[in-house]
Amino acid sequence: LRRTLGADVVPRGRGDELCVRAGALWCDAIEFERALDEDRPADALGLYRGPLLPGLHVTDASPELEEWLEAERAHLARRWTHAVERVATEREERGDASGAAVWWRQLAAHDRFSSRIALRLMRALAATGDPAEAIRHARAHEQLLREELGAAPDSRIGAFVRSLRATS
Fold this sequence. Notes:
This protein is mostly helical. It has helices spanning 2-5, 28-37, 41-47, 63-93, 97-110, 115-127, 131-149, 155-167.
């Protein structure tokens, strides 16, 4: 690593310890969190590419490393979810139904079982002038819940579908 990155990036550690000088490397996860901490959710969302180090399995890794990695993945995913919801809501408030629908669709793909998110996506789709797509999403969501969980969606979804049909 020292030969590739340079001794100024990877200084000598103690024993089998690996150190990287703070700020020497750019890291998307750190920049993602910095953008969120600086109240720049749209910038942060441009950096997020999915779970942290997907598929990483260190042979003979300590349980502490595995626990840390899982906790960090969950932490970043939660922050991503909150940022997506915030951006989608801001788009709705500005009257940008199409922009909101893009973000609600991403969130619905991430949390397929959430009737609350499904309803928000349906409202955004209807606001774009596509009530048929909103109804299709409601049906797909209902089928998913019934097949996977043996559950019915939130009653507000059925009420919204009925209101869409009544106005079309």
